[in-house]
Amino acid sequence: MEPSKVCDKIVEWTKERMKKTRAKGGLFGLSGGVDSSVIAALCQRALGNNTLALIMPCHSDPLDVKYAIGIAEKFGIEAKEICLDAIYDTFIQILPAGGRLACANVKSRIRMTTLYYFANSLNYLVVGTGNKSEITVGYFTKYGDGAADISPLGGLLKTEVLELAKYLGVPEKIINRAPSAGLWPGQTDEAEMGITYRELDEVIQFLEGKIKVKLSEEKIKKVKVLMQNSQHKRESPPVFKF
């Protein structure tokens, strides 16, 4: 489907979700990456002035903040910058020593706590920034960036998000930037997953029967394992019943 039609459908869907839940608007975390930049543009179209972007650096790359501020200005969105360094430091200090991933996930969960604080105060919905590629293989923090009230990009593969970004006018420097969750210095999504987004999207489409091409059995197996190991992230907690 053409990016323009995808854009129109997402905007209309977002408006409908807001009306159905009687929310006054929507807010999201603006990281300076392509996914949140696309959400910024879509929310501006769907919600206008009832949109709030939270820029939440937590020992982050200064460039992330610079790009996030630039996106908010470009699309005319209200943005608040809230530095979470001190909160994170205090939290880590009172906990026993943990591994790198455990500490990194704290950042994501502190950000989501912040988003819901504002959402509850304003009667806004938290708009998720995750895409279908990440959701499919569980590349998100459970109860962190994976938590949201609505997920406008949840049905779009990463490569489709990139096409939408171009249509919406997201700057090339953001589109071409190596995707990163900013969990630690030098961290990139593709290096952590062990597969590029383009390869991942091809495998997902292959498994869904949407394309018939010869793909690496190793890549297919890898994606299947990622999907299986992360199934719990996409489901509600199992409930014991008598």
Structural topology:
Elements: H1 3-21, E1 25-29, H2 34-47, E2 51-55, H3 62-74, E3 78-81, H4 85-93, H5 100-122, E4 124-126, H6 132-137, H7 158-168, H8 172-175, H9 189-193, H10 197-207, H11 217-229
Parallel strand pairs: 1-2, 1-4, 2-3
Task: Describe this entry's structure for a reader.
By secondary structure, the chain is an alpha/beta fold. The chain has a single domain (3-234), classed as Rossmann fold. Helices cover 53% and strands 7% of the residues. It has helices at 3-21, 34-47, 62-74, 85-93, 100-122, 132-137, 158-168, 172-175, 189-193, 197-207, 217-229, and strands at residues 25-29, 51-55, 78-81, 124-126. The chain has a 4-stranded parallel β-sheet, sandwiched between helices. The longest helix has 23 residues, at 100-122. It is globular, with a radius of gyration of 18 Å. The relative contact order is 0.14.
Properties at a glance:
alpha/beta, 4-stranded parallel sheet, Rossmann fold
Summary of the model, kept short:
The chain has helices spanning 3-21, 34-47, 62-74, 85-93, 100-122, 132-137, 158-168, 172-175, 189-193, 197-207, 217-229; strands at 25-29, 51-55, 78-81, 124-126.
CATH superfamily: HUPs
Approximately what portion of the residues adopt beta-strand conformation? 5-15%
Number of helices: 11
> Alpha-carbon distance between the termini?
47 Å
Architecture per CATH nomenclature, i.e. the level-2 architecture: 3-Layer(aba) Sandwich
Task: Please state the overall shape, judged from the principal axes of the Cα atoms.
Answer: globular
pLDDT < 50 stretches: none
Mean model confidence by pLDDT: 94
> What's the assembly state of these chains?
single chain
CATH classification, class level:
Alpha Beta
Q: Order of strands side by side in the largest beta sheet?
A: 3-2-1-4
Alpha-carbon Rg, integer: 18 Å
Task: Tell how many strands the DSSP assignment holds.
Answer: 4
Structural class: alpha/beta
Helix fraction bin:
40-55%
What is the string of helix and strand elements? HEHEHEHHEHHHHHH
Number of domains: 1
According to CATH, what is the topology? Rossmann fold
